[in-house]
Amino acid sequence: MSICGIIYFVTSYTQLLEGNDPGSQIQTMFFATAGIVYIPLGIWMLRNRLHSRGPYVISILVSIFLLVLYVASRTINLPVVGVQEDIGIVDIVTKVIQVGIIAISVRLVQDLKKEQILPAIK
Question: Does the model's pTM come out above 0.90?
Fold first, then answer.
């Protein structure tokens, strides 16, 4: 989670350096917001230590949203930014991490459900 957040922060900074047009500014804010969301979620997960499903469900939803938005940005004409045609290594790395976040979080949520239904016998 935190690595993905850091990547989004770095991407927001590079986007800021690339241009001052409204599309670049919106992308800069978007990437910074994604970083702001991911880093606290990662910290919450570490502090939570599987006591509740909250951070895992939220991370699943955020990651799915970002994946869907990425696919949409490459296939349809979005307001202000248009259709993005570039697919870089950073894009691929973040999407692989996000798929991993979804898979691991789904697995942890399933394990938490099982534990709540059938508590461990000591």
Answer: no
